């Protein structure tokens, strides 16, 4: 089986399936090392915004988190050590980009074309990440800007910001992390904000070594901490699903703003015009403090063009800068390979989804794409959950699906169209009343068709329960037929389903 991508999802998949006794796994990663998000986002201040004890695999806790919300380097190290410890390194091939995958009906296999040749795999797992492709700032004149221009996800560490005039374009999750981290170094820092965002304080404290010590030795403490954090995130999730309850959280955010920002004009510019949670919820206890520094300037406007060293806002604001940092987020929606994965009819995922946007059954299986499993696929995430909680539930589902195939001796499984449609209709109906849909903003949660293709509308508990119950009746399964002769493939990932055997630990 081929897993594409070696971030939390791809590493997690390899780990889980190896524990289940699957041996013919190959994880293909286009970069030179594993880590995904946490390899690429090296900008100053980069950290998780879900507490690390929850934003980590439940089965391999880290007793050494230095802060409640660990920074990028610590998270990357955690992933690397976890992969090493569980032998994922043995099945990882870095520097191999998957270029295309085609389902071959005759052999019941995926033909996976890569920069390292072709592989054949019974099962294809797409773990290419929802926040992977940087969204570029496209405005006239940016290409001719005479200084460094880079995206937060492609931080240029050779650029010294000391004493420079820096423009940061964007007001999302990376902006609230990067601005406090760099402001003290700059001569002037200009933040271009198209949309004001809700910002809650972030209780980002060092973890007392005594707590780490106890959590390492007393699993009860560890579980209690994790459960407490899960409960807190779920509480926020509950509020976001019931907009009438959002008021108190908005009051907390407003108080946070009022206490830090005294200037009523700046405060007005930072006050959102939509409901909290409508866009991804942001947390920081240092962003507003950074904005009130005398050399930091907020411009509540989009950048509309660049002329020489000048960035020009849609409202006519003109700012001179030496460095431009685009904190414009990611192209969220389809997986990175959607245009290159071809199903039973030859159509790609992108073509299949062109009209209504991405949809899958339980965010995992797509009709017409047998034995394909999407990790962190459509409509699985929300504004408050740890992606790792969702991922682990999906991995349990993937393991159950593969056990079913093996037990029944089937070669492929394809989700029934009616099951996928009914499921997605229910998801869309439930989303209607959530703050994601009814909060009065536009966000990356939405496809151009107007459907919210990103959010899960119910509790994470319900998501875990749904994914823990693998329902074979939702799929059409195929028994082996006489395979048509196929040209000799690269045999590296030539996988068979292991027999129901020893060595499988659930
Ligand atoms: C700055 C930042 C902070 C975040 N903080 C949080 C947080 O606090 N809590 C949370 O829940 N989530 C957070 N996220 C979301 C985060 O992306 C997910 O939690 C998680 O790390 C996704 O893991 P992944 O393995 O699915 O994807 P990724 O980490 O994006 O990994 C995908 C991998 O696939 C590889 N790949 C892509 N295409 C190909 C190809 N064609 N061939 C081979 N390899 C390929 C990539 O190189 C990459 O290594 C954050 C995201 C960002 C950007």
General description of the model:
α11 (387-408) runs parallel beside α14 (460-468). The chain has 2 domains: 2-133 and 332-494, FAD/NAD(P)-binding domain (3-Layer(bba) Sandwich); 142-205 and 227-326, 3-Layer(bba) Sandwich (FAD/NAD(P)-binding domain). A 5-stranded parallel β-sheet has the order 3-2-1-7-19, with helices on one face. A 5-stranded parallel β-sheet has the order 8-17-9-10-13, with no helix packed on it. With 506 residues, the chain is an alpha/beta fold. Residues 482-489 and 491-506 have low confidence and may be disordered. It is built from 14 helices and 21 strands.
CATH class of the largest domain: Alpha Beta
Task: Estimate the strand proportion.
Answer: 15-25%
Count the beta strands: 21
Uncertain spans: 482-489, 491-506
Q: What's the alpha carbon Rg, rounded to whole Å? A: 24 Å
Determine the fraction of residues in helical runs and give it as a percent range: 25-40%
CATH fold name of the largest domain: FAD/NAD(P)-binding domain
CATH homology superfamily name of the largest domain: FAD/NAD(P)-binding domain
Would you tell me the overall average pLDDT? 93
Please work out how many helical segments DSSP would assign: 14
Largest sheet entry? 5 strands, parallel
Keywords: Monooxygenase, Oxidoreductase
Enzyme class: oxidoreductase
EC number: 1.14.13.-
Protein name: Flavin-containing monooxygenase
Secondary structure elements and pairings:
Elements: E1 2-4, H1 8-19, E2 26-29, H2 37-40, H3 72-85, E3 92-94, E4 98-104, E5 109-114, E6 117-121, E7 124-126, E8 149-151, E9 165-169, H4 173-182, E10 188-192, E11 199-200, H5 209-217, H6 219-241, H7 247-260, H8 264-269, E12 282-283, H9 287-291, E13 296-299, E14 303-307, E15 310-313, E16 318-320, E17 323-326, E18 341-342, H10 349-353, E19 372-374, H11 387-408, E20 412-415, H12 417-431, H13 435-438, H14 460-468, E21 475-478
Parallel strand pairs: 1-2, 1-7, 2-3, 4-18, 7-19, 8-17, 9-10, 9-17, 10-13, 11-12
Antiparallel strand pairs: 4-5, 5-6, 14-15, 15-16, 20-21
């Amino acid at each position: 089986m081929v897993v594409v991508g070696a971030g939390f999802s791809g590493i997690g998949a390899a780990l889980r399936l190896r524990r289940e006794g699957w041996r013919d796994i190959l994880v293909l990663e286009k970069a030179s090392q594993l880590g995904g998000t946490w390899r690429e986002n090296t900008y100053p201040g980069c950290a998780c915004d879900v507490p690390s004890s929850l934003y980590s695999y439940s089965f391999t806790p880290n007793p050494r988190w230095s802060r409640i919300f660990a920074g990028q380097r610590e998270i990357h190290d955690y992933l690397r050590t976890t992969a090493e410890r569980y032998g994922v390194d043995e099945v990882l091939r870095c520097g191999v980009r998957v270029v295309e995958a085609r389902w071959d009906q005759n052999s019941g296999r995926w033909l996976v074309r890569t920069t390292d040749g072709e592989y054949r795999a019974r099962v294809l797992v797409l773990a290419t990440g929802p926040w992977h492709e940087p969204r570029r700032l496209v405005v006239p004149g940016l290409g001719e800007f005479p200084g460094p221009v880079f995206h937060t996800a492609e931080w240029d560490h050779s650029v010294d910001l000391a004493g420079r005039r820096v423009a940061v374009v964007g007001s999302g999750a990376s902006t609230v992390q990067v601005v406090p981290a760099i402001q003290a170094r700059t001569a002037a820092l200009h933040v271009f904000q198209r949309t004001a965002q809700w910002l809650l304080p972030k209780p980002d404290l060092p973890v007392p070594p005594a707590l780490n010590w106890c959590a390492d030795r007393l699993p009860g403490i560890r579980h209690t901490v994790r459960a407490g954090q899960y409960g807190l995130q779920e509480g926020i999730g509950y509020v976001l699903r019931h907009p009438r309850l959002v008021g108190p959280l908005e009051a907390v955010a407003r108080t946070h703003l009022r206490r830090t920002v005294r200037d009523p004009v700046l405060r007005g510019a930072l006050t959102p015009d939509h409901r909290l949670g409508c866009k991804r919820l942001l947390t920081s206890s240092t962003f507003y403090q950074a904005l009130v520094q005398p050399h930091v300037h907020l411009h509540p406007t989009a950048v509309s063009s660049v002329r020489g060293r000048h960035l020009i806002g849609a409202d006519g604001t003109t700012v001179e800068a030496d460095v431009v940092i685009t904190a414009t987020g990611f192209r969220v929606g389809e997986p990175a390979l959607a245009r290159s994965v071809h199903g039973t009819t030859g159509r790609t995922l992108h073509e299949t989804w062109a009209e209504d946007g991405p949809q899958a059954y339980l965010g995992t299986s797509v009709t017409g794409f047998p034995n394909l499993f999407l990790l962190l696929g459509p409509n699985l995430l929300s504004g408050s959950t740890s992606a790792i909680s969702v991922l682990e539930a999906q991995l349990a589902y993937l393991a159950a699906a593969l056990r079913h195939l093996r037990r029944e001796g089937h070669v492929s499984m394809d989700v029934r169209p009616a099951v996928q449609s009914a499921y997605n209709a229910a998801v869309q109906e439930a989303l209607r009343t959530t703050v994601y849909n009814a909060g009065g903003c536009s966000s990356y949660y939405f496809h151009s068709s107007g459907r919210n293709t990103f959010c899960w509308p119910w509790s994470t508990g319900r998501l875990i329960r749904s994914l823990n119950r693998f329902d074979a009746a939702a799929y059409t399964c195929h028994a082996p037929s006489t395979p048509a002769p196929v040209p000799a493939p690269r045999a590296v990932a030539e996988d068979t389903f292991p027999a129901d055997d020893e060595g499988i630990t659930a």
